Amino acid sequence: AFLARQPREALLAMEACGGSSHWARKCMALGFRVRLVSPERAAKRRDGQKNDYNDCLAIAEEARRGKKFVQANELWQQDLQSLHRLRSAAIEDRVRATSQMHGLFLEYGV
Fold first, then answer.
1. Exposed e or buried b per residue across 63-96, where buried means at least 16 C-beta atoms within 10 angstroms of its C-beta
2. pLDDT class for 7, splitting at 50, 70, 90?
3. Cβ atoms of 24 and 36 closer than 8 Å
């Protein structure tokens, strides 16, 4: 509701993190220009301790002066990335369980 009342020529800047592609797509659908700033680039612009206020200033500064930004993922890209992550996690779980059983069997001399 807040964004719907803002002028469409406004530039929205966010740190690229979990959920940022979703919000970037939503904001672009409303007609805003969106820049996703990588956390590494924002950290280089931050002064003082890491907190929300200093992070916000650093993200705004990088969005204004920076030249490279993170591309928001399309929905199909997020779907594909999720499938790859789930598959990797399943493989890690299988290897972990197999190694644990192997160790337990060795404890009993099997």
1. beebeebbebbeeeeeeeeeeeeeeeeeeeeeee
2. very high
3. yes
